[in-house]
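Worked example

This section walks through a single chain of length 202. The input is the sequence exactly as stored; nothing has been trimmed or padded.
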Amino acid sequence: MSRIIAGAAGGSSLFSVPGDGTRPTTDRVKEALFSRLESYGILQEARVLDLFAGSGALGVESASRGAAAVDLVELADKPAATCRQNAELVNKILGRTCVNVHRAKAETFLLRVPADVRWDVVFIDPPYAFTEAELATVLTPLAGHLAVGAVVVLERSTRSPEPVWPEGLERFSERKYGETTLWFAEPADDDAESDDAEAAEA
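Given that input, the structure is written out below as tokens.
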């Protein structure tokens, strides 16, 4: 059974999605991921987006560790219901509504969200069968909704190629854990790109 590792709700057992249709992030990977995010100092008061949320484990872990607001996005019936259970669990412990659940396709949610919405941390954990073209329909609109200094964490099969990053988003690191690879991306530094172009022209 999965649990919240640390923070205000640390040690709490999470509800799991019934059946075997989802692929939860293992506790080993989750611990390594959040250790890294905390080293960036990015979680406190962050606005977090968890796409293809499954049980919502990554999003609620963020809430437990100090995120200000968390959006869980999940379309399938059973995972969405589990997201609601885990959101209610953590919101009750925190004494406020920090975690909100949205039942929608990831790309549809991103296309409909108000233009001024920005997230500091984004988790993306699509099914391993998700194609690169399908992934692009999510990454492209996401690029316009990232705060300055945001971190995007994309979980993929180690056998999958590096994602094709859209304009406005660039990879800065990757970590492999057995069959799982975490890709870390951030908003592209337009100023740095402009400086490089000017230097090349000079």
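What to look for: The helical segments are 27-40, 57-64, 77-94, 106-112, 132-142, 190-201.
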